[in-house]
Amino acid sequence: MAKIPILLAEADGNDKWRVWCPFCVKFHHHRSMEGIRAAHCHDNPDSPFRETGYILKRHPREKK
Ligand SMILES: [Zn+2]
User: Fold this and answer.
1) How distant, in Å, are the alpha carbons of 1, 2, 25 from that of 29?
2) CA of 53 to the centre of ligand 1 (A)
3) Which of 19, 20, 27, 38 is the most buried if burial means most Cβ atoms within 10 Å?
4) Would the pTM of this model clear 0.85, i.e. be above it?
5) Does 58 map to a domain?
6) Whole-number pLDDT of residue 2
7) 26 C-alpha to center of ligand 1: Å?
């Protein structure tokens, strides 16, 4: 099984978190908790995240 990539999440100003996806070239929004997510790369069939998902970690600059 492929290793699961980690993406750094930041608040999106709307009570959720966002992560920048370099394959879709846009932010994907998720609930505000660290952990594994199914990729939101719905518009990009070539994104490797679709196979692995990704792990959300809070961006260190946003840690309290
Ligand atoms: Zn994506």
Assistant:
1) 25, 23, 13
2) 10
3) 19
4) yes
5) yes
6) 67
7) 7
Query: Which range of residues forms the domain containing residue 19?
Result: 6-62
Give domain status of residue 1, yes or no: no
Residue 64: what pLDDT? 64
For ligand 1, the distance from its centroid to the CA atom of residue 34, given in whole angstroms, is 18
Give the C-alpha separation, 31 to 24, whole Å: 19
Does pLDDT of 11 surpass 90? yes
List, edge to edge, every strand of the sheet that includes 17-21.
Answer: 26-30, 17-21, 6-11, 54-58, 35-37
Instruction: Give the rounded distance of the alpha carbon of 27 from its chain centre.
Output: 8
Number of domains in the chain: 1
